[in-house]
TrEMBL record:
<protein>
    <recommendedName>
        <fullName>Peptidase metallopeptidase domain-containing protein</fullName>
    </recommendedName>
</protein>
<dbReference type="InterPro" id="IPR006026">
    <property type="entry name" value="Peptidase_Metallo"/>
</dbReference>
<dbReference type="GO" id="GO:0004222">
    <property type="term" value="F:metalloendopeptidase activity"/>
</dbReference>
<feature type="domain" description="Peptidase metallopeptidase">
    <location>
        <begin position="35"/>
        <end position="184"/>
    </location>
</feature>
<dbReference type="Pfam" id="PF01400">
    <property type="entry name" value="Astacin"/>
</dbReference>
<dbReference type="InterPro" id="IPR001506">
    <property type="entry name" value="Peptidase_M12A"/>
</dbReference>
<dbReference type="InterPro" id="IPR024079">
    <property type="entry name" value="MetalloPept_cat_dom_sf"/>
</dbReference>
<dbReference type="GO" id="GO:0006508">
    <property type="term" value="P:proteolysis"/>
</dbReference>
<dbReference type="GO" id="GO:0008270">
    <property type="term" value="F:zinc ion binding"/>
</dbReference>
Length: 342
């Protein structure tokens, strides 16, 4: 975002933290937390506008398309009814700009927004704002809160800056969105990208260290090279042809943390089926049904951190096409897992 002391800033919603059992090994906890907000690749996120002028809506559409044009497996589709959308967008000018992070949107009631834009999106700063909020919905946190950034703040001046117009933030909001450092289980890699679309601009005098940023930080706006690299790595383009998941045949999965396996199901009979993983791995398992050439969510399960396996049960119909996707968080003690349909 551009460097301006009068710019309003995004106030991202707090993460909805999933409780984990006591006694989990540290590496397992980190991987489970890291994957908690991320989508299964191949998901189509449906978005709907609750209100708003057409120029503002078009700016948001263009931002979704800009992310998609990077060549990624995640999809975005506008729908008319907010109740049919995972992402529900408002334009309340009195509420600032914000979004929930990643899969947290699924915990929000279907009549409530999951994203809001509180200022004009038709200029360059607005374009970056729209890209930024969509980044949150894809699972990205604020970049300046990266624990590897090494930022030492002049905290008193930071609180003073954000308490003033146009943000009027409480100390709690400022701490959550600026001063709070993310845990290492909330970020990928070990580097900080000051040019990221998820990075705020900061004025002179707010940062003590690193010394080179004492005059401020001025990201160029838009998506950085590292933003592009991250999203293409985590949500790569998926192949059109998928292997078949045959009933009563266990299929071994050899996946690294964050990797995904995808299968096609074409039932020979209409009946209730079950799909499950086996082993000690932590996985997210999602079943989609093809409707009008689009994959729509049918069922999902996530066993991460629990002493069980992801399992789905659904009635599948002969002549229809289904896709099951399984994404690994932790490979388990043996490193082996499998999936089966019956």
């Amino acid at each position: 975002m551009t460097d301006s002391p009068v710019r309003p800033y995004c106030a991202v919603k707090p993460r909805i933290v999933r409780p984990l059992p006591e006694g989990l090994v540290a590496v397992r906890q980190r991987l489970v937390r890291l994957m908690a907000q991320k989508w299964v690749n191949g998901t189509v996120l449906h978005y709907a506008f609750r209100e708003g002028p057409e120029p503002q809506r078009q700016a948001v559409r263009s931002a979704f398309q800009e992310w998609k044009d990077l060549g990624i497996g995640l999809g975005f589709q506008e729908v008319d009814e907010p109740g049919e959308a995972e992402v529900r967008i408002s334009f309340d000018q009195a509420d600032g700009s914000w979004s929930y992070v990643g899969r947290d949107v699924l915990t929000i009631g279907t009549q409530a927004p999951t994203m809001n834009f509180g200022w004009d999106l038709t200029d360059e700063y607005g374009r970056t704002t729209a890209l930024h909020e969509i980044g949150h919905t894809m699972g990205l946190p604020h970049e300046h809160q990266n624990p590897f950034a090494g930022i030492v703040w002049d905290e008193a001046r930071v609180y003073e800056f954000f308490a003033a117009a146009p943000n009027h933030w409480s100390p709690e909001t400022t701490h959550h969105n600026v001063l709070r450092k993310l845990g290492q289980d909330e970020v990928e890699g070990s580097t900080w990208d000051p040019d990221s679309v998820m990075q705020y601009a900061f004025s002179e005098g707010l940062i003590k260290e690193p010394a080179r940023y004492q005059p401020g930080i001025s990201p160029p706006g838009g998506l950085s090279g590292k933003d592009t690299e991250w999203v293409r790595t985590f949500y790569p383009v998926l192949p059109d042809a998928l292997p078949a998941l045959e009933p009563f045949r266990s299929t071994p999965l050899t996946l690294a943390p964050g990797e995904q396996a995808d299968f096609e199901i074409t039932p020979e009979a209409s009946r209730k089926y079950q799909v499950a993983t086996f082993g000690t791995a932590d996985t997210t398992l999602v079943l989609f049904e093809e409707v009008d050439a689009e994959l729509r969510f049918l069922a999902g399960d996530d066993d991460s951190g629990e002493d069980r396996n992801s399992s789905l049960s659904a009635k599948l119909f002969r002549g229809r096409r289904y896709v099951v996707r399984v994404r690994l968080a932790w490979a388990g003690q043996s490193g082996d897992t499998a999936i089966m349909l019956w």
